[in-house]
What does this fold into?
Amino acid sequence: MTATRVLVLNSGSSSVKYQLLDMRDDSRLAVGLVERIGEETSRLKHSPLAAGGESRETTGPIADHEAALKAVAQELSRDGLGLDSAELAAIGHRVVHGGKRFTEPTVVDDAVLAEIERLIPVAPLHNPANLTGIRTAQGLRPDLPQVAVFDTAFHTTMPEAAARYAIDVETADRHRVRRYGFHGTSHAYVSRETARLLGRAPEDVNVIVLHLGNGASASAVEGGRCVDTSMGLTPLEGLVMGTRSGDVDPAVIFHLARVGGMSTDEIDTLLNKRSGLIGLCGDNDMREILRRIDEGGEDAARARLAFDIYIHRLRKYIGAYYAVLGRVDAVTFTAGVGENSAPVREAAVAGLETLGLAVDGGLNAVRSDGPRLISPEGARVAVAVVPTDEELEIARQTYALVGDGTG
It folds into this structure.
């Protein structure tokens, strides 16, 4: 029997998201989430997607990631999809930070684990949880290939002119300070699917990808290769996000420390958790911000300001990446806000007609789960909406590395 299934794990600090896929046709066999790990109120939501399967939910204490993955394995076994199945080819893990070394999906061994651990200082919230997920999965299936797929890998093709900060080179190299970029699996998937939507090969298409969720990033993709991206050493740089500031003058940090008396931890919390949309207007949900604007009144002013700042930054990056690429074939919106907010898409390209960018109001208003064009017929630059699928991208990369080559 040929093993064609891949289990994708995304291990967070207190959660595990998972999907089981069959790579013969990219179909999902099961999806689920374990959240609030380590608490008395832990919850596991499991959905078998085969015909007749019903979603299940259990609550109760789940002590740690090992207990969480054992619970996941038990749920999968109830559906005949257990981790002991001979049809399981590999387990693919999302790993946020791979530094400069990891440019491709990588089969995990002791040296790979050590390097992921060495990168914890530049990804202190994510890499430890990713490591825990890998080690736990190794314990459950030590005979099975564990594959790390890195958020940063897609961006390792950036030229040094884009990847380096203009600081002392020796200091930067000693402390691994450079622009790494994130959301790489999403940008890789969406840029390739955009080319497919246009009926062209990825190597023939230049795309600006706008991944707009609670976290947000932009990338300039030239012929299938990333040449610039908005996030940097950490996911804080770049676009205005739900709770993150995006670009700020670095001297703001010094000012807050010297004049405001804030500690580095307090400033870190401010910029990552109390800035962006929530810092500007108290909401980080774009739907709620647009509702406040539509209803008018005193409450609308701060919501409008937050929206305008968000769009201003977004338009700046579209223009910047247009200049970086020289020729743009498509601008593609993806992730929660990008896929679902017609007002954001419309505002982001409004006034950019001289660059060949425009949206058709009717097409933009249509809600759909599939990839689609929202630009007018015959537009010089396509404007597209492509739902992202990071789990499928991780599964494809994992199976391409360890499968039989038919995936």
Summary: DSSP finds 15 helices and 14 strands in the chain. The mean pLDDT is 93. Residues 360 and 376 are 5 Å apart (CA to CA). Residues 298-325 form the longest helix (28 residues).
